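Lecture notes, continued. The same structure-token format from the folding unit now serves as the input rather than the output. Read the line below as a description of shape only.
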């Protein structure tokens, strides 16, 4: 376990993975449990992952990702999906806070009303929030993997319809990112350069 800032700085996108390394279901689930702490708009939690860990399943996913070898070489490759109609579940998701007395009925009703009202006739927002949530989850998953001593490789190089089919995603689910996770093999690139800070920050 390393501290947060060291983990952020140590993470790079890996291409080469130890093909002999296997992750248990418990290890995979632990990584996802950290990703669950990622924030989502209205706490929609409008995402889920499908973890590809068997050789045959990873090969099928690789074919949907332009043959990117790391999909098959990593111990696990996650399909991180955003859920466009996740807003429909806000009543259930918010209820524990109401039941615990942490919020009152008016706050609960306002939360649910605002969530449904903003999303139900707005497919653009449904899509955008699905992508935002899945992206934040993806980053959290990669940092958790790094902190646990693994390396990761994010990918958007895939055919969405093919990934959806292989991962069994529903009509309201959109594949946002593939993330290969496992132990590093030799030959990964060093940290790639970044722009000068001044190009990317303006303090107003
Ligand atoms: C949204 C996204 C999509 C990416 N897609 C791919 C990909 O399909 N294949 C690949 O090898 N790397 C992919 N990468 C990795 C980037 O090339 C990498 O993050 C970038 O070069 C910076 O390197 P670093 O992550 O090591 O700092 C992707 C990264 C992101 C964030």
């Amino acid at each position: 376990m390393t501290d947060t800032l060291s983990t952020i700085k140590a993470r790079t996108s890996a291409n080469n993975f130890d093909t002999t390394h296997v992750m248990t279901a418990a290890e995979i689930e632990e990584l996802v449990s950290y990703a669950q702490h990622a924030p989502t708009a209205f706490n929609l939690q409008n995402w889920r992952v499908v973890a590809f860990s068997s050789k045959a399943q990873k090969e099928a996913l690789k074919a949907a990702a332009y043959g990117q070898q790391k999909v098959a070489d990593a111990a696990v490759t996650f399909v991180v999906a955003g859920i466009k109609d996740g807003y429909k579940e806000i009543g259930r998701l918010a209820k524990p806070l109401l039941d615990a007395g942490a919020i009152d009925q008016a706050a609960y009703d306002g939360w649910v009303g605002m969530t449904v009202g903003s999303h139900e006739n707005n497919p653009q927002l449904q899509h955008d929030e699905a992508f935002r949530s899945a992206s934040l989850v993806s980053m959290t998953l990669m940092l958790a993997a790094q902190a646990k001593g693994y390396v990761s490789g994010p990918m958007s190089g895939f055919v969405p319809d093919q990934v959806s089919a292989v991962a069994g995603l529903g009509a309201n689910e959109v594949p946002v990112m593939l993330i290969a996770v496992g132990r590093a093999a030799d030959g990964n690139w060093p940290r790639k350069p970044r722009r000068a800070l001044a190009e990317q920050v303006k303090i107003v």
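Point for the exam: The longest strand covers residues 173-182.
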